[in-house]
Amino acid sequence: HLEKKWISIALLVVALLVAIITIDAFFHGVNPPSKVETIDSAKLHLSKEFAESNLGVQLDANGDIVVRMVAGRYSFFPKHIAVPAETKITFRWVSMDVLHGVHIPMTNMSTMIVPGYVAEITTSFPKPGEYPVLCNEYCGLGHNHMWSNISVI
Ligand code: CUA
């Protein structure tokens, strides 16, 4: 019957989508957040002292690289950082105002930055060079100028 044919096609499409999600998860490292972590946006002050003590590239207790960055209209802070290539790096993003997104071409970095939540993504940069950090969620009139950059050395 015609119905059976279309049911098979629909099931094939579902199977294809599940396959794409599976491949992204296991081979490209694209995953939903494994835990939901909140932060009080009112406590995010971009004073010089705050930025120097809390933001940027740091080593955690295990010696892993952790990068803390804040998204705010219309940039990512710190404006510029440097990290090593081919190294596992955990990024922790927060927003100081509205919903932003972050996309770094050539990596698996693509996530929303929802005010009040920490967006944690682990990635690595395939080779040295300059990587742009772009906002990919419309956040206001300056959205298309919202970017920063990362030097990978
Ligand atoms: Cu921030 Cu668009």
What does this structure look like?
- This protein is of the alpha+beta class.
- The protein is 22% helix and 37% strand.
- The protein has helices at 2-27, 48-54; strands spanning 37-38, 56-59, 65-72, 75-83, 89-95, 100-103, 110-113, 117-123, 129-134, 147-152.
- The protein is globular.
Spell out the key features of this protein:
two-stranded antiparallel sheet, 2 domains, 153 residues, alpha+beta, 10 strands, 2 helices, Immunoglobulin-like
- Percent in helix: 10-25%
Q: What profile does the largest beta sheet have? A: 8 strands, mixed
Q: What general form does the structure show?
A: globular
Low-confidence stretches: none
Task: Give helix and strand order, one letter per element, not per position.
Answer: HEHEEEEEEEEE
Return the CATH topology of the largest domain: Immunoglobulin-like
CATH architectural grouping of the largest domain: Sandwich
Number of domains: 2
Structural class: alpha+beta
- Beta-strand content estimate: 35-45%
Ligand kinds: dinuclear copper ion
CATH class placement of the largest domain: Mainly Beta
Distance between the termini: 61 Å
Rg, rounded, reads: 19 Å
Tally of DSSP β-strands: 10
Number of helices: 2
CATH superfamily of the largest domain: Cupredoxins -  blue copper proteins
Write down the overall mean pLDDT. 89
Concise structural overview:
The protein is α+β, with helices and mostly antiparallel strands. The protein is built from two helices and ten strands, in the order αβαβββββββββ.
